[in-house]
Amino acid sequence: MRPATRAVHAGRPPHEPDEPLNVPITMASTYVAGGEREYGRYANPSWTAFEETLGDLEGGRCLAFASGLAAVATVLDLVGHGETVVAPRHAYNGSLMQLADLEARGRVRALLVDIADTDAVVAACADAALVVIESPTNPAMEVAEIATIADAAHAAGARVVVDNTFATPLLQRPLDLGADLVLHSVTKYLAGHSDVVMGALVTRDDELHAVLKGRRDLIGAIPGAFEAWLALRGMRTLGVRVERAQANATELAKRLGEHAAVHEVRYPGFGGMISIVLADAEAADRLTASTSLWVHATSLGGVESTFERRRRWRSEPTTIPEGLVRLSVGIEDVEDLWDDLASALATA
């Protein structure tokens, strides 16, 4: 089956009389002894259905986490004391802040690179224990040559994790390109309705899966049953949402590129994320304050269109332009989205 079909059908109960179409929400902290679950921190049928579906889409075995950053922390915990982590200079702010915190405490050494400069990344892999890739990057929209970087990292004995939040498994499957792990902020496109906070990791390495599950069991960074159920419900429409958001983004990127107020458009050519650069911070702030349809918000990947000036966060890298606005294009009618943007750009 093709990916959009698998998103609808994976992780469901068997097609037997009186079986429900959807896996029920299992609200249980304790199970009868003697089986594989034992306790609510170790497993839940609602997680299992979600994990089977995302694992099928990414081509590996999935583990669900309480948040994307809980998944990030679990991956970084694999790195030995004093070892080097290579990561994109531009990436999800929470991931960079976690890495900076670990480095400040002497736990790891962070080496930040321009992920689109493949030669520089390959050179940095020589001393790495872990190579983190985000593609496209957040919010700079840089695209990495995942297969080439993964080959170099493995030659150096490093693991490779790819944050696939922006692309989703419908547009990119990092495990097929050589990655050891795929990371998702399920909060974003997978759940897709701005009502869930969750994360996930996917791997094809059974030994690595066991290690990660052991860390999740010990730390307790587990999702709630209701959150897992909501995320799976949202993932059933991933195909149509990604298709519509991408079509809207492609058209908006073209129009934005022709607008006099827009100095630069950063769109990788796929997906629903665009970044634009306006003259300065003031112009960007006027844009985000002048729309009636676009929502000024920091998250992304929902059915509604959101945007924000990223440098309003003091922890955002200073190499991100002050006037950069990241747009998460939703599934609304593209003409309504453009009318609202065009009107606000006139003010900006």
From TrEMBL:
Tagged with keyword Kinase: no
Keywords from the UniProt entry: Pyridoxal phosphate, Transferase
GO terms for cellular component: cytoplasm
A GO molecular-function descriptor: methionine gamma-lyase activity
Annotated catalysed reactions: L-methionine + H2O = methanethiol + 2-oxobutanoate + NH4(+); L-homocysteine + H2O = 2-oxobutanoate + hydrogen sulfide + NH4(+) + H(+)
Cofactor: pyridoxal 5'-phosphate
Segments crossing the lipid bilayer: none
EC number: 4.4.1.2
Enzyme class: lyase
InterPro entries hit by this protein: Cys/Met-Metab_PyrdxlP-dep_enz, PyrdxlP-dep_Trfase, PyrdxlP-dep_Trfase_major, PyrdxlP-dep_Trfase_small
Residue positions where N6-(pyridoxal phosphate)lysine is found in the record: K188
Superkingdom field: Bacteria
GO BP terms: cysteine biosynthetic process via cystathionine; transsulfuration
Keyword Transferase set for record: yes
Short name of any one Pfam family annotated for the protein: Cys_Met_Meta_PP
Region (Disordered) residue spans: 1-21
UniProt cross-references to PANTHER family, sorted A to Z: CYSTATHIONINE GAMMA-LYASE, TRANS-SULFURATION ENZYME FAMILY MEMBER
Family from the record: Belongs to the trans-sulfuration enzymes family.
Name under which the protein is recorded: homocysteine desulfhydrase
Species of the source: Nocardioides pocheonensis
